[in-house]
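If you are new to this repository, start here. Below is one unmodified record pulled from the training split, so you can see the exact layout before writing a loader.
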Amino acid sequence: MSTTQSPIVYANGIGPDRAAVLADELGIRTMRQMLEHYPFRYVDKSSFSTVAGLTAFSGEVQIKGQITGWENVGTGRQSRLIAYFKDSTGEIELVWFKGAKWISRSLKANVPLIVYGKVSDFKGKKSIPHPEIYAPETQQSSTLEPVYSTTDKLTKKGLHSKGFGKVIYGILKTELTHIQDPLSEAFRTKHDLIGLPQALQWIHFPKSVEHLEAAKKRIKFDEFFFLQLTQLRNKIRQKTSIKGYAFDEVGQTFLNFYENHLPFELTGAQKRVVKEIRADVRTGAQMNRLVQGDVGSGKTIVALLAMLLAIDNGYQAALMAPTEILATQHYEGLRELCSAAGISIALLTGSSSAAERAFVHQSLADGSLSILIGTHALIEPTVKFANLGLAVIDEQHRFGVAQRAKLWKKNEHPPHVLVMTATPIPRTLAMSIYGDLDVSTIDELPPGRKPIQTHHLYDKNRLKLNGFMQREIAKGRQVYVVFPLIEESEKVDLKNLQDGYEQLLRDFPRPQFEIAVVHGRMNSEEKEGEMQRFSKGKANILVSTTVIEVGLNVPNASVMVIENAERFGLSQLHQLRGRVGRGSENSYCMLVSSFKLTEDAKTRLETMVRTQDGFEIAEVDMQLRGPGDMMGTRQSGQLSFKLASLTGDGALLAWTRHIVEQLLLEDPQLDRPEHQTIRDHWAALFKHQWGWNRIS
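And here is the target side for that same chain:
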């Protein structure tokens, strides 16, 4: 928006005192920011009620009449101010509690007024507590009255919803003609968009529902348009100006592994993604590709094949995982495959010994080490690659931008970057968060995988559940039992686990059963020892409070029991379920909860029982939590749309992206005169923002 950047203190009705509170409470410091404080709902004020027609179920009403008198009732905390409000059909009390004496001084009796509020019925007597009151001549011509979010401190300064409306009305009156539209008239006509000044007028004071929808469309379009413009320009820049390494050759390392050591036939989806990666890395431009796939879809083998392409072309490859457990799991799985094919591979984590670190540092520097797997330890200053050509990042949104950049800066040229995520990303979120990436989807599971049977049980079904677990163990299978971990209540969660562990010891006594236990207060060696007991089959049950959704891979484990399942997020439940179902036998996920569930918790558990499609689960998860919280970005403002919504405006986002793609196809640098205002506005919006969403 190109409107005045004048400080809000100069707006009519504001002053130093109110301006300071606005800045502290809502971060509003300029008139522009005030105009972007959009209503969160609208009240239809096209109709009026009568006093005689009011009932306890009338809800919010609007009445024309006048105050006939005032009365102060009660003392201390029981004090309240009553105004007797009368229309032609009867009288009703308007009530204010505590500290409202100023109201009787600010409103005159026996003059026409409009009252708006919610009808209350106490012991058969109707009243309207804390109503809005205004003179008929101050009512806007719009019949849809905006309702603005505010705070207690702002309300005490007179900036309740009505107060915001008055200030914004004043700003529009004086500044509307100064607002420059970044979109030309020809552009707006082509895409059926109203002008920005008109949109701002109508979003705050719509004269009809049609006006409101047109205003919302334009403002949401702008929010999506300039984000997409940033991302797609980044994408063009990556492909044209950021030089990478050209992997021209499919050599002996790749071919030998593919023909002689591949443990299974690739699915059609895996083959497609390998081809997409191959096409990227041969161009000489840096690859930035996200590979998303459901649990068990085979992303790791695809990443290994990409690393073999790097090796064949004389480069090293690195795989960075968010946890030691996951890094170790990757290493152990890949080491078995690589050693058979004669490929050198090593692991580097925070727990690596001095000797192990020295070996890694030396073999990286002299180029004898081809693949390094690790955690954040990979980005330490002492880790120097001879020629890093490919960086694979697992579970990307757990890493910060700065951490990824450190991996990039270990080279003269940036390595190709491949990101793997087992948390499927809804299409609208992928377009927003990863809009400047190429996205590959492995949407096919290996053949022969049996669906995981998922059931929701209540605590009262404990005996049945224990019997089921005992029968599975008698077949030689193993069981996970997971308790929720909430950092703020670690002591409570540890007690939950200890109580649960002790109960399991009673229900599954030694020597018939062996139980391993893992929790957050154990050191790495203790955790590793217990998990090894389980993975080697020496323990029948693994009890844990740790987040093992990206941890163990035990094909013999057939049952996942999730205690207090209502306390887990939907994507976390899905990832936990993915720990079983890795063998050829039937597998089960048992969601145990209390009987009292919130509506969101019911939806999460019902979704888990209904489907195993990670992409469908991701869509439901985004609807429940919102995109920012889903990706862990709520606090950083990375998806801070003022009006647009990824959950509700997916079609508009896709349409906007198509328009941006066409625009950049015709004018990649926005050099044409008719696009100058777009370029200028885009530059002003993003000049202070680093490309947080770029992987490299």
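Two things worth knowing about this chain: Residues 252-442 form a domain with the Rossmann fold fold (CATH 3.40.50.300). The CA atoms of residues 303 and 669 lie 34 Å apart.
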